[in-house]
Design a protein that fits this description.
The protein is mainly alpha-helical. The protein has one domain. The protein is built from 18 helices and no strands. Helix 2 runs antiparallel to helix 5, helix 12 runs parallel beside helix 14 and helix 14 packs across helix 15.
């Protein structure tokens, strides 16, 4: 009754209930961004994890070294390029750790706005408030925003690409911008190549986008990815699609010692030592690691199939087991587990009532992409942080459902159907 009284007071002052909820959403988003800025300021200005150090070295050498280099001497293709260029761009403007982290929280806030736009073709009641609230209730996104990992930028690019894909009035310019976004996303996290194919294919099947537009987007995105592959061919005289660490990542997820839900790099020490003893360079090592993994799969097909299915299930895991507490402490894992279970529960609520409220086209798209991404990610190895960009999809489905519920709860004459 208090909320209804608040709405009546708002109406009396000339503000509709929708306006009150909209302003509340904006305020909550600004508070979230402020919290991210404060968190960025209090964290030590040091890299906390190995991957952070590597991306920082790459970004530094792009500006002050020989180029895309890990050691400052030799050029490399060991990592996908997008995130290193992203950090280098911030460095070029004089930014440091604080700027890196604040920029990522800005991207996180922008992702929330895009998600709000992505949810529905029409203005959802309290849409921004609901989306922001759901993101706040999933604090692993906040935690990752302060780490120099690619997932925050990947989440932004992914949701931006889907938002652009769902725009109906299409032209050459929009298709090229969509392709550029997908291309940059693939050059940051190469497994999104599979995601692009799934997303565009499903959108075409659902008649969300025309097939000719899909072909143009795919072709233009492949040109951007191909440009970096061409760079690798010119620099190293080898065919290296995107990065030379795919063999290593494939081996991490496909060897006799792998436990799907445990820390990565299990069972790879011997292969690493063998590659070093043989004096292999990064490209020869990449092929060597891939061959070791393929040989194991061929020799143990039953084990490999079971492991693959376990990795598919691990995509939906609430926790991963780590050898040390370096990356995430026990209490953080508990919070992450509870918050993901909350999202899964809200998603189940939506699916239980699918007969009463049939899934709209974009909800079907989000579900298909989310589920099939578990199968593409399991080709290599699955960790929860790799799933985070995809978790925005179930947040969008839940937000749509909660907004629909709020519209039913409000008196009919107060429900807003104004188009965006």
């Amino acid at each position: 009754m208090q909320s209804r009284d608040l709405f009546r007071a708002g109406s009396a002052s000339g503000k509709s209930r929708e306006e009150i909820l909209e302003r509340a959403g904006v305020l909550l988003l600004l508070l979230y961004l402020l919290a991210g800025t404060i968190y960025s300021a209090v964290l030590p200005a040091v890299a906390r994890f190995t991957d952070e150090n590597q991306y920082l070295r790459l970004s530094y050498n792009l500006l002050y070294g020989p180029g895309f280099s890990m050691d400052g001497v030799h050029l490399t293709a060991n990592r996908p390029p997008s995130y290193a260029f992203f950090l280098a761009g911030i460095r070029a403007m004089g930014g440091g750790f604080f700027s890196f982290r604040v920029t990522q929280f800005l991207l996180l806030s922008a992702t929330i706005l895009l998600l709000y736009r992505l949810c529905s073709e029409r203005k959802a009641i309290a849409g921004l408030l609901i989306v922001t609230g759901l993101v706040i209730c999933y604090p692993v996104l906040f935690y990752t925003g302060a780490t120099l990992y690619p997932q925050t930028l990947a989440g932004f690019l992914f949701i931006l690409a889907l938002t652009l894909t769902l725009i109906k009035a299409r032209g050459l310019g929009l298709n090229l911008v969509t392709a550029l976004t997908f291309g940059a996303l693939i050059l940051e996290v190469p497994t999104f190549l599979f995601t692009m194919v799934i997303a565009l294919g499903t959108a075409g099947f659902l008649k969300i986008i025309r097939w000719r537009d899909i072909l143009l987007i795919t072709f233009a995105a492949s040109l951007l990815v191909g440009a970096w592959t061409f760079r690798n061919a010119v620099r190293f005289h080898r065919f290296v699609p995107i990065a030379s660490n795919s063999g290593w990542n494939f081996l991490i997820g496909n060897n006799a010692s792998v436990i799907a839900y445990e820390d990565a790099n299990i069972g790879t020490d011997q292969s690493y030592i063998q590659a070093k003893n043989l004096g292999l360079d990064e490209f020869q090592s990449d092929h060597f690691y891939r061959d070791v993994a393929v040989t194991w799969i061929k020799t143990h097909p039953g084990h490999a199939i079971v492991l693959y299915l376990e990795k598919v299930l691990n995509f939906f895991n609430i926790v991963n087991v780590y050898k040390t507490q370096e990356e995430i402490s026990v209490w953080k894992q508990v919070v992450m587990a509870v918050s993901y279970l909350l999202l899964l529960g809200l998603l189940a609520w939506r699916l239980i009532e699918v007969r009463r409220f049939p899934l709209i086209a974009r909800e079907k798209l989000f579900l298909v992409v989310y589920i099939l991404s578990a199968f593409t990610g399991a080709i290599f190895f699955a960790r929860i942080r790799y799933r985070l960009p995809y978790d925005y999809l179930i947040i969008a489905i839940i937000a749509l459902n909660l907004s629909r519920r709020l519209e039913i709860w409000l008196p009919p004459e107060r429900a807003s159907n104004a188009p965006l």
